[in-house]
Amino acid sequence: MGLIPAKHAVLKSFLSSDPPPNKVLETRPDAYSQRGIHLREDDGLVLYLPPQNVPKGVKPQYEIVLHRPTTETLHQMYSLYRATTQEEAELKFIIFKDKIPVFIEVAKEMCNVHGLQKLCDILTEHPSWTLAHLAAHFGLHDSFNDPRVNCYLNSSEPETGMSPLQVAISTQNLKTVQMLVAASCSLEHLDNEANSVFHYAASTTKEIIGVRPPTTEKCRPSYLRSDF
After folding, report:
1. Mean pLDDT by 10-residue block, N- to C-terminus, for the chain (228 residues)?
2. CB-CB contact of 148 with 102 (8 Å)
3. Which of 23, 58, 60, 111 has its CA 20 to 30 A from that of 149?
4. CB 155 within 8 A of CB 133
């Protein structure tokens, strides 16, 4: 008997029309004409207050919305995250505000539902990643031509200590690794567990292991040297 209510609850959840709070949705300005603004960034990210007249039984929601630049469109917006508490909404807004607007300006191909979903998901998993870590993860090597990304070329992510080059090696994106090495990205960087870029490369491919300036050959661990 106890299983029946549980099954009904699962079915109700499955059939619910409400999308998950972290699902990126395309939306329009008229949906927010009656919503107050709690936080706003000049580059288009807004945290909206819950609607004033919430139906009984419905939890009020704070909503993080990305406005596309008016030079591109007046009507296209994206709801990035919805939260039932102000604290949760503010924490997520802080993670997004310095990265998402700039990143989609640099990498315009990411400014769509699919790209923004991937961007929001990876920032939820790695909230302290810099723009360079993001560009390395997604293999957007051209983004490193922008000084707003390139300035983080040798940055260290606090949680793991990984550098953008180590992220690129982990994703096994050969072209991005080649670009970062050619840009004189540090090959001496160690993560929080004292793993070097060579340790990361050891578990990848022959091509990535071979992307090293000739002057580094002497300092490479013997197990990574090769006569390919």
Report:
1. 47 61 93 91 92 81 86 76 96 96 94 97 97 97 94 94 96 93 90 93 89 55 41
2. yes
3. 23
4. yes
pTM of the entire structure? 0.82
For 31-91, the DSSP string reads GGTT--EEEE-TTSEEEEPPPSSPPTT----EEEEEEPPTTT-SS-EEEEEEESSHHHHHH
Task: Tell me the two tokens of residue 112.
Answer: 């769509």
Rounded Cα–Cα distance for residues 166 and 195 (Å) = 9
- Are the beta carbons of 56 and 112 closer than 8 angstroms? no
Smallest Cα–Cα separation from 153: which of 192, 181, 195? 181
pLDDT digits 0-9 by tens, 143-187: 999 999 999 999 999 999 999 999 999 999 999 999 999 888 899
| Complete domains list, the chain, with CATH | 20-125 (no CATH), 128-228 (1.25.40.20)
Q: Is 184 left (phi over 0), alpha (psi -120 to 50) or beta?
A: left
Q: Report whether 197 contacts 189 (CB < 8 A).
A: yes
Render pLDDT for 75-94 as a digit per residue (tens, 0 to 9): 789 999 999 999 999 999 99
Question: What are the structure tokens assigned to 28, written together?
Answer: 């329009």
